[in-house]
């Protein structure tokens, strides 16, 4: 097994220093990215991730340097070369390599990718504690931008204080986690922030919503406050790497230990990717 990297047009050693000084991803964070989970050697929900990648690219006027089919082929080859069964594939697209100036250069966008071992999910039975923090990001959070400063600062604060995630709050409204979407369960209904520009339209979020519909769990896509979240019967985050992860404590508020709806959704989500990986 080996960690794999791809830059611009070829596979490279993951430890090789390949990003040129004039690369706009490096100079400005001028680019977008995706992360796809590989289960049993198969990329999960790749089509959905590629679709969001295209949407992010369009939103910042980035042109893919090659068709989506070639991206799929590079990802597939990366997974094969890695010989990993359980992996995370990160891929980025930046505005290319050009002398530093703010306006867009006329050079092709640069695609890069890594394939690395996935961290196994731990503590799902117990869940995680979270802190709430002010959402200090820009207003186009639906774009999966490489600019992650507010996200990493929030995550760092959470981890430093022994929490698993930072839940971001804008003007009293819970938007999402620093690297996840947020759900609350109250009186048998499932609540989550609507898919506006204020959140990333999570692929896991969409899958969980679909599962909830199939399970006939009433779903409410509506803004809610920090107080609502703290008064919830259950709460959880979703993301490609955390999957569906229950929250046991929010700031100093401990949530009930019984989590019938979260447990059901965890179970169905795990079934979904096991089924996918068997194909
Ligand atoms: N919101 C943010 C800010 C994220 O970084 C992520 C992780 N990519 C998510 C939500 C969850 O999205 P997904 O389910 O597509 O991984």
UniProtKB/TrEMBL annotation:
Annotated InterPro entries: Aminotrans_IV, Aminotrans_IV_CS, Aminotransferase-like, BCAT-like_C, BCAT-like_N, Class-IV_PLP-Dep_Aminotrnsfr, D_amino_transT
Family annotation (PROSITE patterns): AA_TRANSFER_CLASS_4 (PS00770)
A Pfam short name: Aminotran_4
PANTHER family, per database record: AMINO-ACID AMINOTRANSFERASE, D-ALANINE AMINOTRANSFERASE
Protein name: D-alanine aminotransferase
Family: Belongs to the class-IV pyridoxal-phosphate-dependent aminotransferase family.
Organism: Evansella cellulosilytica (strain ATCC 21833 / DSM 2522 / FERM P-1141 / JCM 9156 / N-4)
Subunit (UniProt): Homodimer.
């Amino acid at each position: 097994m080996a960690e794999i990297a791809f830059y611009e047009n070829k596979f490279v050693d993951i430890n090789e220093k390949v990003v040129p000084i004039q690369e706009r991803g490096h100079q400005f964070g001028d680019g977008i990215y995706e992360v796809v989970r590989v289960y049993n050697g198969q990329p999960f929900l790749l089509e959905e991730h590629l679709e969001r990648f295209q949407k992010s690219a369009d939103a910042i006027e980035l042109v893919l340097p090659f068709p989506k089919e070639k991206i799929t082929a590079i990802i597939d080859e990366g997974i094969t070369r890695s010989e990993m069964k359980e992996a995370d594939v990160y891929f980025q697209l930046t505005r290319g390599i050009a002398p530093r100036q703010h306006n867009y250069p006329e050079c092709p966008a640069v695609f890069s990718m890594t394939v690395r071992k996935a961290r196994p999910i731990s503590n799902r039975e117990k869940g995680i504690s979270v802190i709430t923090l002010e959402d200090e990001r820009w207003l186009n959070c639906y774009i999966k931008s490489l600019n992650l400063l507010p996200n990493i600062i929030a995550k760092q604060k959470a981890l430093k204080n022994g929490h698993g995630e930072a839940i971001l709050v804008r003007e009293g409204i819970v938007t999402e986690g620093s690297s996840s979407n947020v759900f609350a369960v109250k009186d048998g209904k499932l609540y989550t922030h609507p898919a506006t520009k204020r959140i990333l339209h999570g692929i896991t979020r969409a899958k969980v919503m679909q599962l909830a519909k199939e399970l006939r769990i009433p779903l409410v896509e509506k803004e809610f406050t920090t107080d609502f979240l703290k008064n919830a019967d259950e709460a959880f985050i979703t993301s490609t790497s955390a999957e569906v992860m229950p929250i046991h404590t929010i700031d100093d508020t401990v949530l009930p230990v019984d989590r019938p709806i979260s447990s059901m959704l965890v179970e169905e989500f795990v079934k979904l990717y096991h089924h996918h990986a068997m194909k």
